[in-house]
TrEMBL record:
UniProt KW Acyltransferase keyword: yes
PANTHER family listed in its UniProt record: ACETYLTRANSFERASE
Protein name (record): Ribosomal protein S18 acetylase RimI-like enzyme
Keywords on record: Acyltransferase, Transferase
Organism of origin: Isoptericola halotolerans
Length: 374
């Protein structure tokens, strides 16, 4: 409802997006440009990891992760991607524009791309980014969603200065900052994890498929008050799981929720209310974990990674999120992982920073999101 009220004071998205009638040409570097297709996954993986290594980024990708990008039905690679190939047929640059189908408060277009380190300084990145911005504006205008809108990029804080300057010259400004954190798990006897006793009808359970959609609904509720977050549809929720480790993931469920009170609460979303009326399980907190073996050598240690962590707003203060996180961290340690890892928005409104500090997490890396707000 809040998004609808805000949107009534905005000009139509087709006007605010200021989309060009045609897209700019890319002439720098004498490359041949075409949309990406699924068969490009191996070459795209090589390019992205080459860029990551050159820029000292703290992660690498796998072929499964790249292939998964092409499997998502909402991505339009035919219109929203470009690959730059040299005369020998080698991939030298790429650019994507991505929107998400679940956006209901702010309609967003994120821009991802890069140029091979050997081909930088030729103006390729500048022209490619101009194409991405123009296409992003077209995508926003065509969305038909008269909501606040955003063109956004992500950047490592210690990444190439030239890239940050490119974004800022194009009118994007820093809006959000993120920190990656780790916690040593090698001496749990000397630095133990908390033993959390859940009160009332709350119960900690391992992740299983029967709770999967209930976890999605919990996530959508937990992140409603987080800046930049949008609800995930079932198809979004089920994608991007090439590194997901169910046995490292834990949920807290309420076995006896006050259905009448929750359904009557105006903060309860329609999907949750329908699930409650149908007698479906109510997940109130979740910890969804992943394993990125390809990053172990880059970082210099093994780790389990908490990709998603949250607590329903009505259940905050009852240690449900802490119980799920501690259980996941114990699972990491039991499988020989040296550290627990996660990342967090520095302006997180749920008090997560205090919990992470109390658990012994330390900052290892930082990044930011820059955007044009429309």
């Amino acid at each position: 409802m809040a998004a609808t009220q805000t949107s009534t004071h905005l000009a139509p998205i087709a006007e605010r997006a200021d989309a060009p009638a045609s897209l700019p040409s890319i002439t720098a570097g004498d490359l041949t440009w075409r949309p990406a297709v699924a068969d490009d996954a191996p070459a795209l993986l090589d390019l992205r990891n080459t860029i990551a290594e050159a820029d000292a980024e703290p992660y690498r990708e796998t072929l499964e992760e790249i292939t998964d990008l092409f499997d998502a039905p909402w991505r339009r690679f035919d219109t929203d991607s470009l690959l730059g190939v040299d005369a020998e047929g080698t991939l030298r640059a790429y650019g994507f524009v991505e929107t998400m189908p679940g956006d209901t408060r702010t309609v967003r277009a994120f821009l991802f791309g890069g140029v091979h380190p050997d081909r930088r300084g030729e103006g390729i990145g500048r022209e490619l980014f101009a194409w991405q911005l123009a296409r992003g504006r077209q995508v926003l205008a065509a969305s038909g969603k008269d909501l606040p809108a955003r063109l956004g990029v992500f950047a490592e804080d210690d990444g190439p200065v030239a890239k940050l300057h490119l974004y800022e010259r194009a009118g994007l400004a820093p809006r959000r900052f993120y920190t990656e954190m780790r916690r040593d798990l090698r001496d749990l006897a000397g630095a133990p994890l908390p033993e959390v006793e859940l009160a009332g009808s709350l119960r900690l359970v391992p992740f299983s498929d029967e709770y999967d959609d209930a976890a999605r609904l919990a996530h959508n509720d937990a992140f409603r008050d987080h800046w930049g977050s949008e609800p995930q549809t079932p198809e979004q929720w089920s994608r991007g799981r090439t590194a997901f480790v169910p046995q490292w993931s834990y949920l807290v469920v309420d076995d006896a929720p006050d259905v009448e009170a929750l359904v009557a609460d105006p903060d309860t979303d329609a999907e949750t209310a329908a699930a409650l009326r149908a007698g479906e399980p109510l997940v109130v907190a979740y910890e969804m974990a992943a394993r990125f073996d390809e990053d172990f050598e880059v970082k210099g240690y093994t780790f389990g990674y908490t990709e998603l962590l949250g607590t329903r707003r009505a259940y905050r203060g009852r240690k449900a999120g802490l119980a799920a996180l501690a259980a996941g961290m114990r699972a990491f340690a039991a499988d020989g992982m040296e550290y627990a890892g996660l990342d967090v928005d520095t302006a997180n409104p749920s008090g997560a920073h205090g919990m992470y500090a109390a658990l012994g997490f330390e900052v290892t890396h930082s990044s930011r999101m820059l955007s044009i707000e429309l």
